[in-house]
Structure formats: C-alpha cells, structure tokens
Amino acid sequence: MHNDKAKILNRLCYTELVYERINKRLHCQRSKDEIEKLIFKVINETQEQFFERKGKNIYITNREENIKITINTNTCRVITVDRIIKITSDIRFDVTNYK
Question: CA-CA distance, 56 to 53, in Å (whole number)?
C-alpha cells in the first residue's frame, strides 16, 4: 500500500461538486482549502493498514478524525468522505423497570 499512499498524496485531486458533498456528509462548512488540507493530513497520518482497496476505489479509514475517505485509484480523485459512527462497548441498560 505504500506505493498507493505516495501516489495518492502526489496526485490528489477534487471535483467542484465533491467539496459540497464533503461539507454535507461531515455537517460542516469548510472552505476548499480547509478540505484539501484536512484530506491531505488524514491520508498522510493514516497508517497503511487502514487503506483498503476494493475494485477501482481505495478506502482510507481514520479513527482519530472519525472519517473514511473514498478515492478513485486510477485518477486519485476524492469521491467522498463519510463520518464514522463510534460504537462504544460500554453500553448499559436500565433494567429496574423491565418486565
């Protein structure tokens, strides 16, 4: 995956529509520059074991930022960014009134 990571970082690109999609998916209003810096930082800091290649896309999961980035491996174009939902294992139920 190291070759994929270096290739992506060097050739990373965006469409005009993806900026809107990222803001919508992450529930934010970041500028194009802020989005590009965030994506670059996340890809650069994410360990290669969290890069998953499926078909023509590569999925980069970063738990610190709680996002998953989808990138086309041929063009290195960002397709989308999704928020990861944290699931905690410390779930407690109130059973005092359970019948």
Answer: 8
